[in-house]
Amino acid sequence: MIPSLPKLVLPGPPEILTVLLDGCIVGGIPSSEVEKVVAHIRRLKVSSPAVIPDDLEVGYVPLSMGGAYPGLYLSTSPSRFVRPVRNISLPSDGSENIELIGPFEQVFMEIKCPDGGDGGRKSSFPATHEEIHPTVMLSVVANLTPWSDHNQSPRNMYQCQMAKQTMAFSSQAIQHRADQKLYHLQTPQSPIVRTGSYSKYDMEDAMILNKSSVERGMFHGQIYQTETIDLTEMGGKSRKSGLTPRMFRRSNVNKFGSALDADGLPHVGQLIRPDEPYCSIYNSERNSVQTLRKKGTEPVYVDYVAVDVKNKKDLQKVNIRFRQPRNPIIGDKFSSRHGQKGVCSQLWPDIDMPFSGTTGMRPDLIINPHAFPSRMTIAMLLESVAAKGGSLHGEFVDATPFRGSVKKNNEESESKSGSLVDDLGDMLRKKGFNYHGLEVLYSGVYGTELTCEIFIGPVYYQRLRHMVSDKYQVRSTGTTDQLTKQPIKGRKRGGGVRFGEMERDSLLAHGAAYLLHDRLHTCSDYHIADVCSICGSLLTTVFIQQQKRPVRQIGGLPPGRAPKKVTCHACQTSKGMEAVAMPYVFRYLATELAAMNIKLTLKLSNQAGA
Amino acid sequence: MEPQSYARMPRVKIRELRDDYARFELRDTDASIANALRRVMIAEVPTIAIDLVEIEVNSSVLNDEFIAHRLGLIPLTSDRAMSMRFSRDCDACDGDGQCEFCSVEFHLMAVCRNDETQDVTSSDLISSDHTVVPVDFSDATIDASSDGISGNKKGGITIVKLRKGQEVKLRAIARKGIGKDHAKWSPAATVTFMYEPEIHINEDLMESLTLEEKKEWVESSPTPVFDIDPVTQQVMVVDAEAYTYDDEVIKKAEAMGKPGLVEINAKQDSFIFTVETTGAIKASQLLLNAIEILKQKLDAVRTSLDTVEADDQFGELGAHMRGG
Ligand SMILES: [Zn+2]
Ligand SMILES: [Zn+2]
Fold first, then answer.
1. What is d(CA A290, CA A274) in angstroms, rounded to the nearest whole number?
2. What residue stretches are annotated with the DNA-directed RNA polymerase I subunit RPA2 domain (chain A) (predicted)?
3. DSSP state, residue A407
4. What is the pLDDT at residue A430?
5. Which of A215, A343, A399, B141 is the most buried (most CB within 10 A)?
């Protein structure tokens, strides 16, 4: 039988691989030669950058089933990402053989971690390159955690999240910047941290700050906010000149009552409280003055006023930078570099803090030791011991993770030291301190010895930008929703916190009926509706304005209010009118239903269960 | 029944006394008195510190609050503080610096006109009262010209650094206050006390150790408390007060299988105080002032009506308090 289809021969591997330079085909290479060529180019890249640029990307895509199209892709164009690795296929004659590799080529390369092992390659895929340090596998943020290899891994992840929320000394040029919002820490430093429950104010990740330390400047910071006022963007350009009718100018009316300058702008250093004007704009068309008022709940200082003088004739654009002091208060959030966040629960005076009998030191911060067993952030304890030893000796301690794996390579340089803890413990011991970082402390209140030894040492703490002054919410009465007459939500508008279904359930479970009624009815949309008991409607009731009778004045008393007369529009009588307390939304429901041609009737009864 | 006397006659023995440092023994009293003294020294002995700052010009890199805070923390010579009035109690003025009884006015004017960075230090503060001036930290033993650390020849505390064209001009009012209100008024850098240790070595048990073991045991204390007599090879206490109650030697003795090798107790009635001041007042004066204030506080309790009412409760103690 002769097949009807022509016989298809599967193509074999290409004998020639194409070579592309910066995206253009420049030729081909026999596939048997290509690996030698790649190795040669890499050698030249490292040894003679004059011939081959040292940032050349040698993207060799080998032949594979279902993989990327094979070929040799060379890139020399600028602005590519490169990173250094060690080329170990070259003979190391004293030099490090650092090669810069790019993201395209690295996926086809064999780069091993310098931990002394081969990463499970065995002899089938020998590594041609080696990372400079084991920690290069970590990101920049992850690298900021000291001894992260001693921490439980989720804690390292939490820290990476938290490091981005810290307040810092972020810029040296704050004077000349106009950031929308900038958190600034006055003096970054490591407080002395003590673990141990001293009173109950450190439960559940709360911490006690030393009030005197705070008064001396610990964790002081401020928020810089810039308000941009552009008159050209406010609309209302006049057709003729193309200029806005607006200009910065103070109102002539209450010239002396205003804290603003004659140009309508605030003074540098001036304190502006909430709802006070910080800028005044004069509209020449309407001959009116508009003032911009400071929003928020906290007073701010005017830090800087920058005027845009691009338009020489008159001022059109102004940047006003405000500065809000944010020194620590109860409720502010702090964290160590080990995912150990907490909230300040107390600011305690120095004298109440425990103190060391020998050095007289008082801690700046107290945390609860329960923060450790379940979270296993051993590195935080190591940091404390290391920082203590380091400060006693006046030197920095290297806290790079994976110390053990690097040591194998240059074993000779390391001393006979065993574990990390032994090294750190010896540092303390040399200066007459306890090997494990423990100290005997005395109660600041009673002056008596605390019956257990306490772990104390400096730990770097981060001030996080979540501060109570941005979060606190309080409401007794206030604005209500127009439609439902229920309290509104939202902190900015003075709203409340929702008492939701789950909260309702818990009150039901407790049998707290009165409280439930109070929260959901009395303090919410309490409403007395007039209901017609004849037809059961609460929508057909109408007020009949009483004919104004001459009210007799009785001895200076205000005239008695005439009783309201309510009748049912449908029944044309006021006989069956009853006052019923209900949530206002119920009436709203009745009207919504009425709009859909559904009548809602109430059956009124005095007996329960009728 | 003979009324029991609660009177104790505490003794003070001064070991070391410098202007800003004192070390003394307090004996024949208890922890309550020792700690009260410590607390009063830190938080209730008054000093003078800058409390109100009126900034006229500030074109430096630091903001107004920062400078005001730094000014507040500068220690001022406060020998006059005890006799001064709190500005809130002053009936001669309203605490605005116009009154000599409660406030001292300072002026600071600094402009940088050179290309070099200029340090504005506490010695640039001009006081209206020659008895209340920033504490002079310049050490007479160090030659002023050879100070190479900051090039700061005046020896004051740096408030702010200025570059060319920047200026700071302000008026500051210093007032009397106590450390309880704000740490800037605390005259004490450190006040601490320790209980005097009593160390008894069990000689018989100690002699059962070899020299090697003795050395190992002596080495186990992180602080040099014990040593071995080079002649008799006996373990002796060289510095009992170096002991930090760390229990290291006791744990070591137990680990060596010799519990009871040494017995260490804290004497409940003798304390060794270490006092360091900020320089606002002398260490000796700090102690005297603290005792004076403690007396005043006790007087307040004694004369209080509550105390008389509480007589039934406290009985003899109450009578004793009133000098019975
Ligand atoms: Zn009706
Ligand atoms: Zn006065």
1. 17
2. 26-83
3. H
4. 87
5. A215
CB B112 within 8 A of CB B162: yes
Identify which of A51, A62, A49 has the alpha carbon closest to the alpha carbon of residue A105.
A62
- Scanning A420-439 for CB atoms below 8 A from B yields 428-429, 432-435, 438-439
Note residues around ion ligand 1 (Cβ under 5 angstroms). Answer: A 532, 534-535, 568, 570-571
Where are the strands (E) in chain B, listed by range? 11-18, 21-27, 47-58, 103-111, 118-121, 126-127, 158-162, 167-177, 188-201, 226-228, 235-237, 262-277
Residue A251: per-residue pLDDT: 76
Least CA distance to A210: which residue of chain B? B183
* Helix residue spans in A188-333 (DSSP H): 211-215
> Between residues 241 and 260 of chain B, which touch chain A (CB distance below 8 Å)?
242, 244-248
Query: How many Å apart are CA A427 and CA A432, to the nearest integer?
Result: 9
Nearest CB partner across the interface for A357, out of B186, B194, B222: B194
Here the tokens at position A178 are 């106009």
| Number of CB atoms found within 10 A of residue A533's CB | 17
Q: How confident is the model at residue B324 (pLDDT cuts 50, 70, 90)?
A: very low
Return the pLDDT at B274: 92
Give the side-chain half-sphere CA count within 13 A for B214. 22
Closest chain A CA to residue B35:
A447
CA-CA distance, A589 to A591, in Å (whole number)?
5
How many CB atoms sit inside 10 A of residue B1's CB? 4
pLDDT band at A124 (very low <50, low <70, confident <90, very high): confident
Q: Do A350 and B35 count as a contact with CB atoms less than 8 A apart?
A: no
Task: Return the active site residues of A.
Answer: 205
The DSSP secondary-structure symbol of A518 reads I
Whole-angstrom distance, CA of residue A457 vs CA of residue A444:
18
In degrees and rounded to multiples of 5, residue A518 shows phi and psi of -65, -50
Q: Report helix, strand or coil for B225.
A: coil
* B190/A359 Cβ within 8 A: yes
Hey, is B132 helix, strand or coil?
coil
Residue A194 has pLDDT above 90, yes or no: no
- CA-wise closest residue to A20 among A87, A77, A95: A77
Please indicate whether, in this complex, the C-beta atoms of A440 and B245 are within 8 angstroms of each other.
Answer: yes
User: CB-CB: which of A186, A217, A360 is closest to B190?
Assistant: A360
Q: Tell me the C-alpha distance between A251 and A238, whole Å.
A: 22
Cβ within 8 Å, pair A301-B73: no
pLDDT at A403 over 60: yes
- % of chain A residues with pLDDT over 90: 19
SS3 A588: helix
Residue B131's identity, in one-letter code, is: T
Judged on CB neighbours under 10 Å (0-12, 13-18, 19+), A386 is: buried
Measured CA angle at A9 (ends A8, A13), to 5 deg: 140
Structure tokens at A386: 């290391």
Q: What are the CA-CA distances from residue A100 to residues A81, A105, A114, A140 (Å)? A: 9, 11, 17, 19
* Residue A106 backbone phi and psi in degrees, to 5: -65, -25
Which neighbouring-strand residues pair with A334? A342, A463
| Pairwise CA distance, residues A434 & A427, whole Å | 10
Residue A584 C-alpha to ligand 1 middle, in angstroms? 20
Cβ of B223 within 8 Å of Cβ of A432? The answer is yes
Digit-coded pLDDT (tens) for B72-98:
999 999 988 888 888 888 877 776 667
Between CA B183 and CA B73 the distance in angstroms is 8
Q: Average pLDDT, stretch A303-320?
A: 81
Rounded Cα gap, residues A200 and B117, in angstroms: 49
Residue among A137, A42, A56, A52 at smallest CA distance from A97: A42
